[in-house]
Design brief:
By secondary structure, this protein is mostly helical. The chain has a domain of about 70 residues. It is about 65% helix and about 5% strand. The protein has 3 helices and 2 strands. The chain has a two-stranded antiparallel ribbon with strand order 1-2. α1 packs parallel to α3. The longest helix has 24 residues. It starts with a helix and ends in a 5-residue tail after the last helix.
Length: about 100
């Protein structure tokens, strides 16, 4: 079992957290709102993934860089962290663009 991919995801989430803290874009500006936004996004995408797995559209695939731990059949634990990274990146981008355009928080 290797944690290379999970480690990369956690490192990336850490980098986003540092950017968020530095510029107070999401969790350092409005923590509850940011948590709801990222949480709803992750849950929505996990449901999407689950549906895709049930319908046979998605498959886990094999990689020597993944832990092998599963949240559900064919749903690796890394997927939840990837989706959190995706949602957090989207939220920070949105907030940064709002600030750049001069819109109030």
């Amino acid at each position: 079992m290797t944690v290379a991919y999970l480690g990369a995801l956690l490192l990336s989430l850490g980098g986003l957290t540092l950017l968020d803290r530095r510029f107070r874009l999401a969790f350092w500006a409005e923590p509850a709102r940011a948590a709801w936004t990222v949480g709803i996004g992750v849950v929505g995408f996990l449901l999407w993934d689950g549906l895709g797995l049930v319908l046979g559209i998605f498959a886990r695939g094999d990689s020597p860089h993944m832990t092998g731990l599963l949240l559900a059949p064919e749903l690796p634990v890394e997927e939840a962290f990837f989706l959190a990274l995706l949602c957090y990146t989207g939220l920070l981008t949105w907030r940064a663009l709002d600030r750049w355009r001069g819109r109030p928080s």
